[in-house]
Write a structure and sequence with these properties.
The chain has a 4-stranded mixed sheet. Strands 13-10-9-15 form a 4-stranded mixed sheet. It is an alpha/beta fold. Among the domains are: about 1-245, Neutral Protease Domain 2 (Neutral Protease, domain 2, Orthogonal Bundle); about 265-410, Immunoglobulin-like. The radius of gyration is 27 Å and the shape is globular. Its cofactor is Zn(2+). InterPro entries: ERAP1-like_C_dom, M1_APN-typ, Peptidase_M1_aminopeptidases, Peptidase_M1_dom, Peptidase_M4/M1_CTD_sf. Belongs to the peptidase M1 family.
């Protein structure tokens, strides 16, 4: 029996119907795939208005934050349902192992039925549950693309993080019993790296053998404890009992190289000799770690040549020759590693292959699978950030973008080229007009495709998950680049709303439309948003959008007035003041206005927010620091307001920001020089 509990009005209005309907489906899916029955006679899902986590997988009584389970019956959009499905699936997965709804479901097997022996193997609960949450979510929402969503939401973000974190997936028991903070283990390394390693493991074993081993493991250790070696043993037993899949080493040796050492590898490929070399991928500003594995992994390499998939091969030492990977002189002879992102690593191609891949993208982008186009470009930008390749190499791979129709790829490119935190800085740099001309030329096809839906039939996008998640960034960038049609569209939709406050701006782009409706308008548009903020019973998400929109005004006096309003207890709740300041300070005309406001009103602000607000504002101000004189200007203020130890910390922050800004200016000059040569191509 499955019951769901929530506030009476939420149940009455049907807000929990979707979560209740998919729970049984996910249970059945997990029971069928794992061939292990859920042993309890009932499951209750409880939605609490206030709960510290997204969900918690108590056996038979899963608790969720209300917002994690609720879906308005009128909301047909896949993104909301997908989020609910992921959380439910995770927690159900725990009913076998043990922590959110999709996520909650997984833990019933991984965490509850079989629990890790000690916290050092927490990833056995959370990593496996996180892996199955995506399988479960795509089972109940088959319109979701498993490989795209898994790479965009799980693998890519944790690759960015893992290169900065000095800890392995599985620690020694002694380390956890000693100085290690237990709560710090509940991080993206445990959840997302654990899921990514599981994805890779399932890939080279084949899903059939992987599930067979998991079933054996779950049955053996039901109602007891296990460690990762127990899982490796059961996988080895399955491997030994068949002859289809041959591994280069025992399962424990392969998998310990991924779970017991920090970070992950980057493979460097020389196509002239067919040599593949591995090393730990690390930030140029950090030091290499030393551990018992000597930074060597046993790496499964899935690859293709000229569009044809090749047999899986392995790199089990620091460097190895693969004669089959030598290419001819033909420009149409190319190699692609890590096909369908089956491995947890980055790839650094030699110049010859990158040129051929760039040409291929321009002539026939679909010859490379979408997830590999994503990986190829993301890898090269990451390699640029960490000093492996010059920025020009990454930019060469963006020339083809006029033919790119995948929003999740566009989103990754835009986050690399125009990080939200740098929009106001870039707007005042000589690179902006060049970037505008270069990007708009490539952005127009996909922009017009989606703008057509927004104008004529936005409901047609209800099953387009990536449109719901990423269209906002595309539209915001088009408007930021000054595309007139984007500004006109924002004005049109804003005017509709202003004429009829009952009209709903499409949620996919509501933040952008409200912002640019105010930006291209006058005080009348600003005043309307202010009125809607004060007279609406809108949900918290809408209130955040309105607070943000009012910071988009292009007239200084409106921003001054907005900040002054923020001081009034009668106009805003106290927690809104810092939000208003943080929105205004990030705008290209707002950072000086916000800084002057903070310094002039510091005695009043410090009572309500203390030094935390000042730290946040100074971090943003740091983006504009170029000289020692500017640092001294900021120092004059905070020397009078902060204690000595805090002053030292802020000085270091600003000095660091100055160095970063110096490096960024050098980088932007390189980008500008490249754009000047390629802007008309």
């Amino acid at each position: 029996q499955i019951h769901i509990w929530a506030r009476k009005e939420a149940i009455k209005n049907g807000y929990l119907d979707y979560a209740l309907n998919i729970t049984g489906q996910i249970f059945s899916f997990l029971e069928d795939i794992l061939n292990v029955s859920y042993p309890l006679p009932k499951t209750d899902l409880v939605a609490l208005p206030d709960f510290g986590a997204g969900g918690m997988e108590n056996w038979g009584l899963m608790i969720f934050q209300e917002a994690s389970l609720m879906n308005l019956p009128s909301n047909e959009f896949t993104s909301r349902k997908a989020m609910i499905a992921l959380i439910v699936s995770h927690e159900l997965g725990h009913q076998a192992c043990d922590f959110e709804i999709f996520l909650f479901f997984q833990f019933k097997w991984f965490g509850n039925l079989v629990t890790m022996n000690w916290w050092n193997d927490l990833w056995l609960n959370e990593g496996l549950a996180s892996y199955f949450e995506y399988l479960g979510a795509t089972f109940v929402e088959p319109k979701l693309s498993l490989d795209k969503i898994f790479y965009a939401h799980v693998v890519q973000p944790v690759l960015r993080e893992d290169s900065e974190i000095a800890r392995s997936l599985s620690e020694s028991e002694d380390k956890i019993k000693g100085s290690f903070s237990l709560m710090s283990l509940f991080d993206n390394i445990t959840y997302s790296k654990g899921a990514s390693i599981t994805w890779m493991l399932s890939g080279f074993l084949t899903e059939k053998l992987f599930i067979r081993a998991l079933t054996s493991y779950l049955k053996e250790f039901s109602f007891s404890n296990a460690n990762q070696d127990d899982l490796w043993t059961h996988i080895q037993m399955v491997i030994d009992a068949q002859d289809e899949v041959q591994l280069p080493a025992p399962v424990k040796h392969i998998m310990d190289s991924w779970t017991c050492q920090n970070g992950f590898p980057v493979l460097t490929l020389n196509l002239t000799t067919g040599t593949v070399r591995q090393e730990q991928f690390f930030n140029k500003n950090s030091r290499k770690s030393t551990d018992s594995y000597n930074n060597t992994w046993i790496i499964p390499i899935s690859w293709m040549r000229n569009g044809s998939s090749q047999p899986l091969t392995w790199l089990d030492k620091s460097s190895k020759m693969f004669p089959e990977m030598e290419v001819s002189e033909s420009e149409y002879d190319w190699i692609l590693l890590n096909v369908n992102l089956s491995g947890y690593y980055r790839v650094n191609y030699d110049e010859l292959n990158l040129k051929r891949l760039a040409r291929l993208l321009e002539n026939d982008p679909k010859a490379i699978p979408a997830v590999n186009r994503f990986q190829l470009i993301d890898d090269v930008f990451a390699l640029t950030d960490f000093g492996y390749v010059p920025i020009e190499t990454a930019l060469e791979l963006t020339k083809y973008l006029a033919r790119e129709d995948e929003l999740f790829i566009w989103n990754m490119v835009l986050l690399n080229l125009i990080p939200e935190s740098l929009e106001s800085t870039l707007k005042n740099h000589e690179v902006y007009p060049l970037l505008k001309k270069y990007l708009l030329k490539r952005l127009l096809p996909i922009y017009h495709y989606y703008a057509g839906f927004i104008r004529q039939n936005v409901d047609a996008l209800e099953d387009d998950y990536f449109a719901q998640v990423y269209l906002e960034k595309l539209m915001a960038t088009a408007c930021w680049l000054g595309l007139q049609d984007c500004l006109d569209l924002s004005s049109e939709l804003f005017a509709k709303w202003r004429d009829n406050p009952e009209y709903k701006i499409p949620f996919l782009i509501r933040r952008t439309v409200c912002c640019y409706g105010v930006a291209v308008g006058s005080d009348k548009e600003w005043n309307f948003v202010w009125e809607m903020y004060n007279h609406t019973n809108s949900v918290e998400e809408d209130e955040d959008i309105l607070l943000y929109a009012m910071s988009c005004a292009k007239e200084s006096w409106l921003l001054h007035r907005y900040l002054q309003y923020g001081l009034s207890d009668s106009l805003f709740s106290s927690n809104c003041t810092s939000v208003i300041i943080s929105h205004v300070v990030t705008k290209d005309i707002g950072h000086r206005i916000a800084w002057e406001f903070v310094t002039e009103n510091w005695p009043l602000l410090s009572q309500g927010y203390g030094h935390e607000l000042l730290h946040d504002v100074l971090k943003v101000m740091g983006r504009f620091v170029k000289t020692d004189v500017q640092i001294q200007e900021l120092q004059v203020f905070y020397n009078a307001t902060l204690e000595e130890d805090e002053r030292e910390a802020i000085t270091m922050l600003l000095e660091s920001a100055k160095l970063e800004n110096t490096e960024r200016r050098k980088l932007l000059i390189k980008i500008a020089n490249w754009l000047e040569k390629n802007v008309d191509n």
